[in-house]
Request: fold
Amino acid sequence: MTCTSSFLFSLRVSVGLQLAKRSVKILTLFAIFGFVLLAPKSISADPITLAPSSASLNTTAGGTVIFTGQITNQTGVPLSALDLFLNFSGFDPAVVTIEQLLGDPDFLLPNNTFSQVVNLYSVTVAANAPPGTYTFDVFIQDVNDNFSNSVTVSVVVSPNAVPEPTTLLLLITGLVGTRIAHSKLRRRS
Reply:
């Protein structure tokens, strides 16, 4: 009987250990799911969102373009346009001059709303800028140090229009013809 009772005892211990292992696994799973469900959620949305109407505008050397767009306020407080500052990076100041237009005129942007389409900034390209695409990044910062998403925009500089030789020939012929006609009219009078 001792053989049978020691066998039963070891069987009970083995079954008990297996049940304990399963319980630990189940408790571990509950702990992991509980942590995932109860962990604080991070906010993925930017408190301020910048949405330009166009990411690229065209001009010629010496020209100026105005970028427009909308701004969304999710900062928790109302903002004035004068509370917002545009930050620019990644451009060559010898070729591109950027001026903030946002805030002129001023407007109120309540929390959880978006603005009408407004003038954001102007970009003036140097008169000697070679044709090409000039890109830069822009984002908004408010007086409470909230930041918007960063947006990459570009200005495409086209070559200046040069009159074709036939156009120039036609212009010269017209001027010479006008001069001859004017001379003939003088002689008659």
Q: What stands out?
A: The domain at 48-158 is CATH 2.60.40.10 (Immunoglobulin-like).
